[in-house]
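Holo model, zinc ion. Inputs:
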Amino acid sequence: MKHNKLLYFILGTLATTLLGTFGTAHSTQPVQAKTKVQTTQIVKTKPTKYWVKPNVSNKAYAYTAKLGKKLFKLKTHQKVVFTSQYQRKIKVSGKYQTYRYVKGNNLKGWVKSSYLTKASSPTATTTTTTTPTTTETTTSVTNSSSSSTTTPVKTPVKDPAKSYTPDQGVSWASSNITYAFYPKMNNSEKALWYSAIQEWNSVNVVNLSETSDYNNANIKITNVASNSDGVDAHTVGISYIQRATTRNPAGFYAMKSAVIGILPEQAIKFNFDYAYTQFIAVHEMGHALGLAHSTDENDVMYPNEKDPYTQKITEADINTLKYLYNKQ
Ligand SMILES: [Zn+2]
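Output:
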């Protein structure tokens, strides 16, 4: 009997990169120290969006200006939409090659242009970010510009009469949370997440709304390659969570970023159908909202699903969500 493992990771305090905190991606050893590196002048170009080519080698990196140091492994950051407006040629072993200076998701560095491909520019539709008009007071995000008016931090207390699933001690500053899809996801992949999101929105604790701005969305939804960090042979869904060291108004650590995804190759391998995979999306979204794993197999936050076709978000899952967003 095959069970998919639903994994999640909390990356301790805020690191400088998003997913790079895993594994050994942060190599800083000099590359080919003996090679003489010659560079042409940096040329400014029109700002253009790029991402890393899907088939990029494991040995492809972003570097400092003269290829002195490796900054990050490209394969680990294939979901990032980078912006580049500078390029130069760098001569390595007698041959000039074009490099682009890319920035995105707190990452920056020089990347060989043949490793990059243009990201399709987001369609210029009138995407009005539907700001939900709930009675909820929109707190810290807007207030934080004036440093004197800090939102008071509450001390979270659980109601002894209620049951809860465990939490990560982390939540978003506001219950109005944005999400965005990785630009290459197709409509049927998105539909799977829309139904999962609908399920969380329908419990009326948080309001998840879509934005087209992937890099600045609170929750980033993507498809994950089966060779990604933290993935093993049984992983079908995954979430990567980063938190800040500061507390948000509800009294929890402030969620800094959440990247969640399904591994399509794994879902196919296990013959998971739409409904099954959609259940996994509900679970991963729970992590992105601050929920941890439950020990009760009925909860959606239980790490191995009991019955994905009938299982719904339970009272205990909802209580934890309310607790995390100060809505008890
Ligand atoms: Zn999980």
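Confidence is low (pLDDT under 50) at residues 1-5, 10-35, 121-149. The longest strand covers residues 235-247.
Archived with the compound record.
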